[in-house]
Amino acid sequence: MAVRGDVSCLADPIAQELLTSRIPARLAYTWSDGTPRVVPIWFHWDGAQIVVASPPRAPKLIVLNTGDPVALSIDSNDWPYRVLSIRGAATVEQFNGVPSEYAAAARRYMGDEQGRDIVDSFPADVVMYRIAITPTWANILDFETRFPSAFPG
Questions:
Q1: What residues are paired with 85 via a beta bridge?
Q2: What is the DSSP secondary-structure string of 4-24?
């Protein structure tokens, strides 16, 4: 079992299950007044980064810049809970068109046909922002063998 914080845990079967699930990630970032924000968001795991995409008017783009620290949580709803927590730095870039990672996420979340329809609904000249998070810290809780550090044991 990987040490808490070791990104090698991303290869663990529980992490892989959550990274390929239809559960939205919860993206946490810091707003301009220093307060935290958390938003649910579709994501795509490419094996090295978690990639999300947003339209230009998304509030997070007002404050997120390349290099900013962010956190993600992907967690199940059923007992025993499974939680993957990730911290890393965001890379933000303007993208002309729909990023391939957004298209892959749309198909995973909505199914092939409906995912394709969502992507095809964007105008050809759409501008989106691609936000890639490179994990620098990761942890798994499975509430069977891996519990929060506050639990006795």
A1: 73, 139
A2: TT-GGGGGSHHHHHHHTSSPP
Mind listing the pLDDT tens digit for each residue in 92-104? 999 999 999 999 9
Cα–Cα distance for residue pair 38/75, rounded to 1 Å: 14
Half-sphere exposure of 113 (CA within 13 A, CB side): 0
Number of domains in the chain: 1
Average pLDDT, the chain: 93
User: Whose CA is closest to 9, among 63, 85, 81?
Assistant: 85
Q: Does 112 fall in a domain?
A: yes
Q: Residues in the chain, how many? A: 153
The rounded percent of the chain whose pLDDT value lies above 90 is: 86
Which of 103, 72, 89, 94 is CA-nearest to residue 133? Answer: 89
